[in-house]
Amino acid sequence: MGKLVDITLERALDKELEDGEPEDLDAVESDPNFIMYRLENLLERRPFLLSHVVLRQNPNNVYEWLNLAKLCEVLLHVAKINSSTNSSR
Question: What pTM was estimated for this model as a whole?
Answer without folding.
Answer: 0.59
